[in-house]
Amino acid sequence: MDILSSFSVFGSTLLSLLSSPTNLLLLIGASFAGIIFGALPGLTATLGVALLTTLTYGMDVNTALIALLGLYVGAIYGGSYPSILINIPGTAAAAATALDGYPLALKGQGGRALGLTTTASLIGTLMGILVLVVAAPWVAKMALQFTSFEFFLLALFGILISGTLTSPDLVIKGWIAGLLGLAVSTIGRDPLQFFPRFTFDMPDLDQGLEVVPVLIGAFGIPQVIRALRNKESLGAMQEFGRILPEWSTLFKNRKNITRSSMIGIGIGAVPGIGEDIAGWVSYGAAKNTSTHSETFGTGEPEGIIASETANNACIGGALIPLLTLGIPGSPPAAMLLGALMLHGITPGPMIVVEDPDFLIEVTAILVLCSIAMWINGMFLAKQVVKVLSIPAPIFLPVVTLMCILGSYALGLNIFNLYMMVLVGVIAYFLGEMQYPISPLVIGVILGPMADENLRRAMMVSEGSLMPFLERPVSILLLLVIVLVLLSKVPQYQTLKSIILKKLGFGRTSKKGA
Amino acid sequence: MKKIVTALVSGVLAVSLSTSVMAKDRYPERDITNVVVWSAGGGTDVINRMITSEMAPFLDVNINVTNRPGGVAGSLGMSYVHKLKADGYTLVGLSESVVASAVQGGWDQRMDVWYPFIVGGSPDVISVSENSKYNSLEDLISDVKAHPKTIKGSAGGAGSIHHLNLLAVANGTNAEFNYIPYPGSAPAQTAVLTGEVDFVITSLAEQQQLIKGGKLKPLAMLVEQSQELDGVGVIPSAFDKFPSLTKHLPIMQAIGFAVKQEASDSVKAKLTDAFNKAIAGPKLQEWAKSNYYVLSGLSGEAASQEFAFLESLFSWTLKDLGSVKVDPTALGIPKPSEL
């Protein structure tokens, strides 16, 4: 199909969707519901899409896609609200946003932070869509370069980078927390041979630890305990700053936004992983390439822009392997695959032949969804900031209740609730000892991926480690990991500045992006 | 949001109410809940959502589908429904893989506690990547025999239906593969595309897009019938060249739902009636045809027999693999040969 006719399909789809008031209402409603889903701890984009799938059964495909994609885009964005306002990420994808978002809120700039994330999320989503339309076949090809070897390295990289980024004092504490998460993630039946590990014959432990109760426990409970102990509110009173986009800040961040989008799209396109890691990697990249990396973690707008642009850019990325190969790029995209199949559409390489307009229609719907998210966000941001003015005696019990509901809602399993409280208490004491909590959670999320893929890689290579050094993507990832490790060794920093000086770079503080 | 909350609340209410209200002849008086033991978006989930929404008009109530994945081979969802009253207001959405739950220590019940309804399944096919040197099953098997244990094959998780098919092919042809486990069919298929493994066995429904798109080259169907595929041609049956396979195959998916065996006859009769009408309806027939599913439509006694066979096959195969927690004999599960 040539570009002109693509554009006409795009335009006519947009028009036909916009001309129906039901669709418009549904679009705004689904996007709103998505934001609420993302914002409530424990309710994730994946769960939201799953629940909505049933309700879309009777709708036609385009209407169903409006609802599902609207919710998906909204939920990825909505996770940033509690991250920024109360330091409890609504979804794992927004955990990196809390690092700089919450300090901003403490400074009374919560409104500004929300405004920035709203527009950053919009730009991220649109960039993802753009790449989806322009470069889908190439990106899909890249995604197929990832085998068990690369998945293992990617998981390891994710844990290492979150360890280095969040440690308040010693870097090693971040890595210790990450390793703790990794260790805990081995609980349950091992994914390859089904052997029970550390389950102590308790059937509830067979499946391993669920991510959501760990996430809520690790972030939510310590936050509540601390607020109770200090008899204070969870956030400072907010000056109602600008919610509308700060074009100058965004323009200053154009490099950051482009890089974050590319990272998000890339990670989204790799099958099986998505938003959860994208935010971290992008935040890490922003911090490591910044000229003032010491301000990260103290309320640096660049930090929230990086993580929020990337996790929303993931959506377009995750749809690339889904629509071109039938392989979902992220957990919510896997849910979307089920929803599409319910409507008789099997995404895959034949979709361009069987239904040539489908990709363009999806694009048009996604564009609408991201705009709906932005409009909703603009209205909501100002309102949600007000929750911080609710007095602590009312607000704290509500937050606690939300944590409990969120842990229970997924799977309706009471065991998860006990798990959440236990993890919460442990996380509180770790936090008191200045251990960062994020690497622990990332360890739990990525642990099974690292474990399973390393062991599978060994099965494939019949025990040889050589493929790690023979595969191009694997070598690249290894190099990045070594660099991350080295950058934390003081001697390396000195060495680097000496080398750079010898090579004639006067200003060693400025690294290239 | 309101809709979702309503759905959630009504789902929870329906579940909690069903423990207190007795079902009488007026069944069904209120909404029915179908608890699917696998996560939303998977094959079992999609089929359950479809069959229940087609059945709903004949029962004149809504059937809400919820998911309760987890435990061992769907044990969480099954134990949950099994603990509730047998009033017919809670169904369990399941697939053939749940039969392995008991031997793997997921729960302590046999499949005969259920009164099953089988919607159907998709036949398994063995495929290689588009640029593979193998052009037929004979090519692959003779190469495996020349290099035993080095040719890598994927087939979803260990103990899955596709893995059982792979083992059956290995037994029926005396070929020794290097089986690489993946958490599901999609990652197993991706592994062929990335070149990590040499061949894959999953269902035709799961592979059809990749086959038609030229990414996968199908070698043989693992059922008796050959399969015509638009734009691809005929995929031959593996039985043509390897007749000994008939001793081990076919092992077909059995996706559907069940009500407790103790449920009253009137409940079973009403569900069976709605089930039969839904299966015969154009929507399901159409969907099955275009997605390469074979509809079964078995219910009651016939479906129970099918599940008893699968239970025996899965349990004893897993025992041979050394991955059972509870011995099948202890549960009273007969060997496939004794059935």
TrEMBL record, chain A:
Keywords: Membrane, Transmembrane, Transmembrane helix. Pfam families: TctA. Residues 24-442 form the DUF112 domain. It comes from the Bacteria. The chain crosses the membrane at residues 24-52, 59-78, 114-136, 142-163, 170-188, 358-380, 392-411, 417-447, 468-486. This is Tripartite tricarboxylate transporter permease.
Automatic annotation (TrEMBL), chain B:
SUPFAM superfamilies: Periplasmic binding protein-like II. Keywords: Signal. InterPro entries: BUG, Bug_dom1. Residues 1-23 form the signal peptide. It holds the Pfam family TctC. The keyword Cell membrane does not apply. The keyword Transferase does not apply. Belongs to the UPF0065 (bug) family. This is Tripartite tricarboxylate transporter substrate binding protein. It comes from Marinomonas phaeophyticola. The lineage of its organism: Bacteria, Pseudomonadati, Pseudomonadota, Gammaproteobacteria, Oceanospirillales.
